[in-house]
Amino acid sequence: MRTMAVIGTGLIGTSVALAACGRGVTVYLSDRTEAAARTAEALGAGVAATPAQPVDLAVIAVPPSQVCAVLIEAQERGLARCYTDVASVKAAPERAALSRAPAPDRYIGGHPLAGRERSGPLAARAELFLDRNWVLTPSALTSDETFDRALELVELCGAVPVVMRSQEHDAAVAVTSHVPHLMASLIAARLREGPPALSLVAGQGLRDATRIAGGDSRLWGDILRSNAPAVAGVLKDLHTDLSRLVPALDALAEPGGGDGDHGMRTLVDLLDRGISGLAGIPGTGRAASAGGHRVRVGVPDRPGELARLLAAVTELGVVAEDAAVDAGVDTGADGGSGLAARFTVPPPVAERMVAELRADGWEAVREHGAARLPSLRE
Amino acid sequence: MRTMAVIGTGLIGTSVALAACGRGVTVYLSDRTEAAARTAEALGAGVAATPAQPVDLAVIAVPPSQVCAVLIEAQERGLARCYTDVASVKAAPERAALSRAPAPDRYIGGHPLAGRERSGPLAARAELFLDRNWVLTPSALTSDETFDRALELVELCGAVPVVMRSQEHDAAVAVTSHVPHLMASLIAARLREGPPALSLVAGQGLRDATRIAGGDSRLWGDILRSNAPAVAGVLKDLHTDLSRLVPALDALAEPGGGDGDHGMRTLVDLLDRGISGLAGIPGTGRAASAGGHRVRVGVPDRPGELARLLAAVTELGVVAEDAAVDAGVDTGADGGSGLAARFTVPPPVAERMVAELRADGWEAVREHGAARLPSLRE
């Protein structure tokens, strides 16, 4: 790929342009706001100009509802040989392109799973997509050349291509992104009405849980509208969940009992289902430690010895996501009874960890076989 | 304070003990699970033993529903001169203590706003409470000596004391912590039932939004039950919010319109209320930049110049939470027309930033007067 056009120089468009420029591609920038295109140019993301010849690929980086109109306009003036977009909704733009675009075979939908709470070109970074998934949703008409160009784009941004149907994509992001965004907004909106003490008891947990609510409301309104059927379905499920949860809390709130036991079971069952749902999110510690190997280390029964071991483990650069302690075990060396610490670590690390801890005087052994997924409450 | 007892050596109890030990206090550790107390001892958090004399302060670090029973037992055997706890619900334990404890004047409720998703003594850290708020909820009976001892505890953990009534605390944490936890659990639980594509489109936003759902489900069940009246109230409000939101999404999902405009207004209004709610959470960038000063820097109209400016600003160690660009302005030096970048920075930083950028050849000026809270969409 030698030439590219980026239409829409917001966060994602400018980041794509920066990545492409960094790999030697000539990038032409445009935006309906002149200042945005010139800002992207001043950031070194390309030139704010119209190409004289058709470019290899045009990347349409506008809100989902505008993708098809921009595609039609660009195809009519022959801007590029191939076209893709980066919107986070895929079925509606695809449907529109198939029925209205001059050359639907030269279009493929795309969605890089990357973003920031800040929007606009100033927040852009060339490395925004590094190692992130980038979904491509070829339609029945998408040509091989168009598919290949999109794969090339994903590769030069350092992302990982993932291919699925547009409907499948939209159903999935409704659960993982669109509905969580709405719930974060609902929680954050409640903060406006609370007592003044709220800000004194707001901690990191709340900041994390509501961070996504900070996104641009016009863009998010557009996204949610474009995926409204899937979002409405998941919202209804959540509404039903909440309809069951409220009576459980009411029962627990009743002085002197009521049906408190049933309420408590409902509550703990939900919390447990939440914990097991987290295991499905890649990159969380718990999921990462599944399939890890166990290393067991004897700890002499003296104050501070376990702290000394944890420091030694940290010094080895080992990230042990799960660690647990057994009391009253035979620690080997002196035949005494002390503690044993068990660490779950990635398999390649286990052997080295044992060797280095032993060299340091610790009684370390590797427990063979992959560990079960450890109890999430450990 | 010279001696302390910590009852319950989980994450919080062991962290308190580590902080106290680090400040030279003699700490006696106990836990109903022997391994936990011995693990804390092995971490250097004190000695797993019963004190021979009453200690200065006993810190009860057990789930909220058990605070009062543990307090009564400890007061009956004369464990300490003063007592506090660290549970995240305050009204129910206080009520129980006032009606049932042998010496309610020697008890004060406490709640450090600190935690981790991991639980147990192995996750403990002496610096867990550093600069965090630590709520104290003296009752009408709490003695001055008890209040003073608790303040001393907060101080030696490096935390910031905040005093409020127990009911006020519980109403606030229902909104900022307990209900967000339940919503995170509901979202995470939905991930179990989704299509296989879910894990391919799960990004950092989802990880952040659901992280709190990873907490110990038995402890959280206990917390939610102990604060059930306040939690039920907020949950009902959210249920009502959701009952309004579902028809809005339904209207947007209807092919060909329906009442889509009204649906869109409802949606964007919610998103905007969410954004303004975030401003109430301390430590978020948006809130921090309110009252900042503006620095305006001319950017020559050549590709890459803005990138060079942003790099220079970063090199100065300046964290500019809000930056914006104007196009087509007079940039001064060469009389040409280029871009101007505006940064909102903390007042003490503005003067130094201007001086150092000028020394570097940039046309930087400080815009006087505190900036308005910038538009959150900028």
Automatic annotation (TrEMBL), chains A, B:
Pfam families: PDH_C (PF20463), PDH_N (PF02153)
Keyword set, alphabetical order: Oxidoreductase
UniProt family annotation: Belongs to the prephenate/arogenate dehydrogenase family.
Record InterPro entries: 6-PGluconate_DH-like_C_sf (IPR008927), NAD(P)-bd_dom_sf (IPR036291), PDH_C (IPR046825), PDH_N (IPR046826), Preph/Arog_dehydrog (IPR050812), Prephen_DH (IPR003099)
GO BP: tyrosine biosynthetic process
Keyword Oxidoreductase among record annotations: yes
Protein name: Prephenate dehydrogenase/arogenate dehydrogenase family protein
UniProt cross-references to PANTHER family, sorted A to Z: PREPHENATE DEHYDROGENASE (PTHR21363), PREPHENATE DEHYDROGENASE [NADP(+)] (PTHR21363:SF0)
Source organism: Streptomyces kanamyceticus
Signal peptide as annotated in the record: none
The Prephenate/arogenate dehydrogenase domain, residue ranges: 2-282
Molecular-function GO term, any one: prephenate dehydrogenase (NADP+) activity
Organism domain of life: Bacteria
